[in-house]
Write a structure and sequence with these properties.
The two termini are 64 Å apart. This protein has 7 helices and 9 strands. The strands form 2 sheets. The chain has a 5-stranded mixed β-sheet with strand order 6-7-5-8-9, sandwiched between helices. A 4-stranded antiparallel β-sheet has the order 1-2-3-4, with helices on both faces. It is elongated. It folds into 2 domains: 128 residues, Nuclear Transport Factor 2, Chain: A (Roll); 153 residues, Reverse transcriptase/Diguanylate cyclase domain (Alpha-Beta Plaits), CATH 3.30.70.270. α4 crosses α5. By secondary structure, it is an alpha+beta fold. The model has no long low-confidence stretch (mean pLDDT 84).
Amino acid sequence: PSRSDRLVHTRSEWVAAILQDFALVPQHMHIEVLDLCLQDLAEDVVSATALVHVRGPDAGETPAGQVPVARLVLVFRLEGAEWKIVHSGTSVPSGPLPQGSASATMARLQTDHRVLQAQLQESTRALAEAQQRIDAMDRTDNLTGLGNRRQFDHVLQQAWERAQRAATPLALVLLEVDALRHFMDRHGHLAADACLKTLAVTLTQMLQERPGALVARFGGDAFVLLLPGASLEEAHALAEGAVVAVRTLALPHEGSALGRVSMGGGVAQMVPVRDQRPDELVRAASAALARARQAGGNRVEPLPD
C-alpha cells in the first residue's frame, strides 16, 4: 500500500502488496498468508493485520509447525484525499515453534490482536468524546449555559446558507439589558450574574416551541435570538414578548427609572441573496437596538423601511 498509495480492501489485494514488497529480495522466499483482518477504528483510521508464514531461501522443507508465524500490522489514516501509513509493525517469535503449536500460536496472536483492537477502539472513542466535550465547552457561555458568540456565529453561517439556497427569510433579534452597569454598581456583580442567568432561562423557555431557533449570549449584557423562517412581524412580536416577559419578572433594579430590570431590543430580517453576508443581518439588528437604547430602552425597534 505504501508503494501504490491506496487502501487495500480484500485479502487478494493485501497478498499482492506483500508479495510485491518481498519480490525485492534477491533470493526466493515463500510467503503464506494465514489470516488477514481489516478493521475500521474510526471514520479516518483503518488497521490491517496479516498473520503469515515466511520461509527464507534456505528453509527447505521445514515442517509447518516449525515455521515462525509473523504478524504484520499497518495503521492507515486519511489525510486529505490520501491514506497514509501512521504505524507499521512486524513481530516474529525469537525461535522455532514446537511441533504442533503453530495453530495455537496463531490463535493466541489473533486473540491478542482482537484485544489490542478493542483497546484502540475504546481509546479512539474516548478521545472522540473528549474532543466533543472540549468543542462544546468552547461554544458554551460559562455563566448562562447558552451558546456563546462562537456558537452563534457558527449557527448563523449555517442558517444563512440554508436560507440563501431556499430563498427563505432569516430574522434576528438582539436584546440588551438596560443599564446593566448601573445594576452592578447598585447590586454587585454576583447579583448581575444571577440576573443574567434568570434572563437566559426566560428566553430559552420562550423559544421552546420554535424548532430551529437559537438563543445565545451575544456579549456582556446582550442576548441574541436567531429565527429561521420568521417574518419581520413574527420576529418583532417575539421580541416584544421577551421585553414584556423580562419586565414581568420584576427583578429589582435601583439604577433604573422603572425600578426593575428591563431590556431593549432590535429586530432585523432578510432573505439572503448572493453576495450578501450574514454580518449584514447582525449590523441591521445592532442599528435597530441602538435606536431602542437611545429611546431609553424597554422597547423594541425594527429595521427601518
